[in-house]
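Recap for those who missed Tuesday's class. We walked through two folding examples back to back. For each one, the amino acid string is listed first and its predicted structure tokens come directly after. Nothing is annotated here on purpose, so try labeling regions yourself before you check the end of the notes.
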Amino acid sequence: MIPHKKIKRSILLEMALIMGLSLLFYLSIPIKSYSMLYIPSGSLHNMMRHVEADLNPLDLWILRLMRGLGVWQTPKSGYISIPINAQQEISKGDFLYALSVSKKVYKNVTLIPGETLYFFIQDLATTFNLSETDLYKAYQAKTRYQEAGIVPDTYRFTLGISASTLMDYLTTHADRYYQKLSQQLLGRYDPQEWEKTLIVASIVQKEAANAKEMPLIAGVIYNRLKKGMLLQMDGSLNYGRYSHTKVTRTRILEDESSYNTYKHKGLPPAPVGSVSVSAIKAALFPAQTNFLYFVKNQQGVHVFSQHYGEHMRNIRKK
């Protein structure tokens, strides 16, 4: 006769085996998933309510068991990558494990010198699934500059970042960068003085065919300002949404904004785009010449002149 305790132990072992096999079978079931998932911050219950996959209370129990065994950690909030197959499927077990070990999804975005905030915010909104309105509000709340409040560079952020956090980084980085650069080049940092520098640099950035020309163009700007002449710079009209728009005679006649330096004396009220270090240096240390005019030749670079008659001859040579 088999002792009662042995029978009970045998039944428990059989039940454990059945449960184990059932669990293994359950974890092998394929489920549909996306290659990227957004994980909200908070508890496991909160995560289960928002994850776009078929999760249930049993999955929650398995996750808690895995965490108790030290093989699973609660994932950080944000987008994570999931290794699905061509049919957008993954086993339940691999999916639950991937929730813990998968890395956050990062994306890059590049601001090129001369580009305007109008288009860069569109890039940010598209790349990181953010609202353009939220990005504008965050930008305006965190920087004094209508334009050029972000340094041209390639930036890398996680999907799921908020508009406020993203703009806080970009504008704080720019402020620190400008202060350091101003101290290096001038030995001081005056925000108002620096904003004027950025305005000149942004026009130089738009007008110059290359970095070598930048000090010459900056010199022309300052020479014309000294003489009280209209700047008459096409680049000043490439502000905001007009960044990639060719400046025509019709545009010059119809644009009544203070950015139209064909109609209004002095500098525009704000930078007309982002600026490179070369453009900033040119604005701070312009070439000392008597040039008042320049025009692009057939080789795509500018020819500079002091007198209007010479300038007109250069135009006819185009």
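Example two. Treat it independently of the first, because the proteins are unrelated.
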Amino acid sequence: MGRYCIIVLSFLLSLVLLPNVASGQLRRNYYRNICPNVESIVRSAVTTKLQQTFVTAPATLRLFFHDCFVRGCDASVLLASPINRAEKDHPDDISLAGDGFDTVIKAKAAVDRDPRCRNKVSCADLLAMAARDVVVLTGGPFFQVELGRLDGRVSTRPSVRGHVPHGNFNLNQLNAMFASNGLTQTDMIALSGAHTIGFAHCGQFSKRIYNFQRGRPVDPSLNPFYARQLQQMCPRTVDPRIAINMDPTTPNTFDNAYFKNLQQGKGLFTSDQTLFTDPRSRGTVNLFASNQTAFRQAFVAAMTKLGRMGVKTGRQGEIRRDCTAVN
């Protein structure tokens, strides 16, 4: 009986420790002896794509975030379904810009042109490298990306529900969702800083400038001048798909202006502005607004932790020949 209990306990401990074991396979220079030039190949492909359209930067970064938060960083968000039942078909993912997907496809094609690398680099790793590269290419910090992920074989539309934060979330909701993924409030605030190069469609925040509450048509946490600007760019009858920069000051530069904007009531989403209006997170916003180095360091730490989420190992995954389909 005692031996049986020990075996069961060992099994349970292995389950508890599995995520750490999985993330432990990640390491820098993973492809040194497999595809030694992979990082420069990917960076070149991302640079070319970014020169074609700036949307590449926020789209790729957001794609990485959405991928990791649902099933872990396994490129499951890239899988396509002939009957629209994949992650990318869920309403929370339907607004993901095509340029993010195209960036990974272009990087995959570039890597596979090297005979040494063909079908040896996972799509999940390509997405992780591309996300880092768009940060660097827009002025953000460089950091070494841990590599060695395998691609997942499963992607379902229902799995997205409840795993991606919404623009109307308050601090409690944000903290709960990020904590469930092993990320702290500081990680969450730092990752939110990626909105410095992001964009949103009018329909995603129109309630804040037209139908906030009875007697209060405009969200009082919005800067009044900024609210009027938003109304001019997004009148009631405008196409709700029109995109608005989330950083109205330096939208094409990865910097700490996002946090300075929050101090002035210029957070586009409720989930942005709540980081400043809530006293529990205001101190971190003020720190990042006044100290860009602190923001950059926190962002790198959070991105590294994000990249370790749900890493697939062994038979859990594969290296896809086509990023949009399982082998």
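Answers for example two:
The radius of gyration is 21 Å.
The chain has a mean pLDDT of 92.
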